[in-house]
Amino acid sequence: MLTIRKILVLRKLPLFHDMRPEILADLAQIALEKVYTKSQSIFEKGDDGSSLYIIVEGSVRIHDSFDTKQPTKTLAILKEGEFFGELSILDNETRSASATAHDDSILLEIGQHAFQHLMVENFDLSQNLLAALANRIRNLTEKIQKES
Fold it and tell me: Which residues contact 97 (CB under 8 A, 6 or more apart)?
């Protein structure tokens, strides 16, 4: 994927929409294109995590599948323009859920070390990531409250 296409994809994300062009160019340089076929595992719950993913095309199912004796529970179906795995950018913990390509998908993968380096240099990037995480927590809280 061309760098300019990566920049255009990144710019559409709420996480990066107000970033300066040079920061988007830096992000595009560290974003690796990954292609997954339908039903292909991206990562499993409990795996070491060190990157976040952005969906360029297709969709991804986030699910809980650590116990092979019980059916998996779908936590979310994410589509083009959404991201996942962001907790791995901030810590060195294992994955808290599994991710599987719901359709044939093209993803951008951004590694922890390169992203953290950019966050140190760009306060806006750090602030946007924290705002995105806060939004996810609010949405999950609302979902839990509705289900109770």
Answer: 45, 62, 63, 64, 75
Tokens of 21: 């062009």
Residues 6+ apart with CB under 8 A from 141: none
Tell me which DSSP letter residue 47 carries: S
Lateral strand order in the sheet of 51-57: 31-36, 105-111, 51-57, 83-84
CATH class of 3-147: mainly beta
- Specify whether the CB–CB gap between 71 and 26 falls below 8 A: no
Give which of 5, 109, 120 is closest to 53, Cα–Cα.
109
Strands 98-101 and 41-43: antiparallel
Q: What is the DSSP letter of 3?
A: H
Residue 146 pLDDT more than 90? no
Contact (CB, 8 A) for 45 and 110: no
Summarize pLDDT for 28-42 with one digit per residue, the tens: 999 999 999 999 999
Domain parsing of the chain, residue ranges: 3-147
Question: What φ, ψ does residue 82 adopt, rounded to 5°?
Answer: -105, 165
